Amino acid sequence: MAKKYWLMKSEPSVFSIDDLAKEPKKTTHWDGVRNYQARNFMRDEIKKGDSVLFYHSNTEPPCVVGVCEAVKEGYPDFTAFDPESKHYDSKGDGDKPRWFMVDIKLKKKFKKPVTLAEIKENKKLQKMRLVQKGNRLSVMPVEKKEFDEIVKMSENNG
Question: 68 forms bridges with which residues in the sheet?
């Protein structure tokens, strides 16, 4: 199975790359995704060893802030079954889970983030899903060449 590349969005006020860096073994579960297409990516396609761009959304400026690795493949999102969780799903069924999550591990925090504006200005990234109109998924595939270009941009930023 060929390695795949992903972008995962998180609001830094909810969970930032610095929060991930403080986690034991710099690893966490990526929970709370409540979009079916993003869920399908996590349930069916993200595999151990895949690379992930960590993206801060709903902030100024929105930006890619680092690189992670998938360390555990899709499994039921236990927050969906917890009435105390903000991600609780009252229609959830433990025998047939609707929502899934994966575990990621921080590999590298960028010294200088790559902003959405910089990504949009880069001609090599014009077809990237992130910059396509209407694409608001919190988990999305990224082409290897796009992933590599963003990592290169982060190195040139600092």
Answer: 52, 106
